[in-house]
Amino acid sequence: xxxxxxxxxxxxxxxxxxxxxxxxxxxxxxxxxxxxxxxxxxxxxxxxxxxxxxxxxxxxxxxxxxxxxxxxxxxxxxxxxxxxxxxxxxxxxxxxxxxxxxxxxxxxxxxxxxxxxxxxxxxxxxxxxxxxxxxxxxxxxxxxxxxxxxxxxxxxxxxxxxxxxxxxxxxxxxxxxxxxxxxxxxxxxxxxxxxxxx
Length: 198
Fold this sequence. Notes:
- It is built from 5 helices and 11 strands; from the N terminus they run E-H-E-H-E-H-E-E-E-H-E-E-E-E-E-H.
- It is of the alpha/beta class.
- Helix 1 packs parallel to helix 2 (44-53).
């Protein structure tokens, strides 16, 4: 597998039009293949805009603030990860959101979760269920929502809340990955543009 996969992972869009527009801009600047939503997106219109108007591949899991419209829309565009495997550039991605997960067979490259497992000492929210699933699946990388501040522990990355200007950029190359917590403000500063206030 010599394909390179670039993704942005973010948590807690909370139906923000401004943050969805900034996500589109960041995705275009960084040349990502997909955006992975880690829960609390709140509005399917945000996902629809990212998918239809921005032209992004959108994958995601459901969070505690997401009603049934979120998984319905994600499913309609082939982006629902809750208990499903999506293959993107030969990488297998699955998810654990508010919906129960079914048994997934074979090697998983990325597990997207709404809450991190118990391996995350740097985040004050966790899920024993997610922890057991992470251990059982042993994915190359777990991307977890639920944490307001960025947190990395082993092969688990919680980008922090996009409401606080945090998101994760991850680049996969074969069996390895490089991850970086980034902010819109820094990205725009690097381009010599003015960042909007949140």
